[in-house]
Amino acid sequence: MRILACLLAMWLVPTLAAAQDVWRVAYNHFPPYSFQSETGDADGYAIDLIRALAATRGVEIEFAFLANPGEIVAALGDGSVDVSVALARTPARQEHAIFSVPHQSVRIRLYAPAESAAEVAARWPDGVRVGFAKGAYPAVVVSRYPTAIPLEGTTNPDVLLNLMNQEIDAAIYPDTGFRRLVEAFDTRRRFIAVGDILDEVPLHLATSISRPVLAETLSADLSSFIVTEEYSNIVQRWFGEDAATVWATRTVLMLVGAVAAVVAIAALVGHYYQRRRAEAAMVAFAQEKAEVEQRAAEQLRSRNNRLEKKMSELEELLYVVSHDLSSPLVSISGFSRNAMRAIGADQLDRARELLVRVEANVRGMSRLINGVLSVSRIGQETTHTEDFQLPDIVDEIAMHLDGLLDARNVRLVCDQDATLTTDRHLFGRALQNLVENAVKYGCPHDKNVVRIIVDEAGNRLRIGVLDNGPGIPQHLRSRIFLMYRRLQSDDSGSGLGLSIVSKIAERLEASVYVDGSTETGALFWIDFDASEQSQRKQAA
Questions:
Q1: pLDDT of residue 491
Q2: How far is CA 192 from CA 115, 169, 196, 213, 238, in A?
């Protein structure tokens, strides 16, 4: 009698304990099996299933939403959660969790955009960039295709976004989960299944290896529950299957999974309860989410600031262009009328003089229009990073400006060498504009020198252009890089040269400015971050 009482107690105590505690249930975004509703509550087929099983035991549930199945398996392994609602069983996962009998099965398929599905089907799996969620069962399926290019995403929605942005060619998903996911993004017509079903996988309740008694209890309860009408109603709600078909399928799955569940329970060892680990994981997830949102907000602010700057520049450009074009147009109109009168009066010399003035105004308008086109193209050009030597660029500039240098009696000198890693074409344009500006406005003597100098100090690499002219007054230095700002009343230029230099420097992630420390002449610096130069060199 005493032996019978002891055996009864050994059976009742753990069973009562399993019925009286709180189940910490983990789930991830896996519609329609599990997901967060708009109110933040746990919802889905597997959520309704675990709630029904908890109700039969009279226990409470604490739900924990984790990013992906990999995090769920880790939480089950360290005991920070008790149960997961919908996991596929793999040998690696059986080291961390105890699996129940199956309660549902999913078909794993390959999905691609409708417009490229035929191409993906023809190439699969050779060279196909295929995405899958971190820690999810599709990762096991991908490993069977070594010629595919696997690209892991953090969550199922991340993988879908990569597919929508064409960062991957195709994605592996459970079929029902994929349909619900694309419906949430309203993109269900854009993606279709490619080829045959890759795998059909049973889903299980998975229990922490620290709760073997709970695992046995849940497996037994599930075996009884999946042949009930209540279970059929849950399936009908989420999948719309016929009740008789569901019951027959569940019975087969129960028989198949029972033996495997018994073997798994016997093979695993329990661990201690660690609730703080789960709380720490949730805090870390919340912090990561906040950081992502903050980065997104900062990027949005940065883009808005750039847009506002562009709009301001555009307004200024339209105003100045309309003003600077109207003046030569009025002059051309007047000179043309007077030339016609002169021709009518047989005053050909006078008419020729007036037509020369018309041509001069046309040339001014052409310079203005070409300058505007140059400014607009800078932001649209694609940069090509390469290594090059500074003296090579200076020799090219001297060749292009040969006529101007001879006319102004100017020597262009570069006594120092430097290796730059940036866009050669854009840097050459910026340096040539500075040299041309120095020759036109900074060389007033009979013999003049424009020097290209190099300054490397710490993390800075500066390329300077120094003339021997009168220099630039302090109060005017903030204006010279604005569009159509001339310090001298000279119509030979477009007024855009230094503005173009400033925009090129911004495009090259550099800065340009006037050095105020020189006693004579003007010194313009193009200033690079040497550490960024080194990173570009490594990338190139």
A1: 52
A2: 9, 12, 12, 43, 21
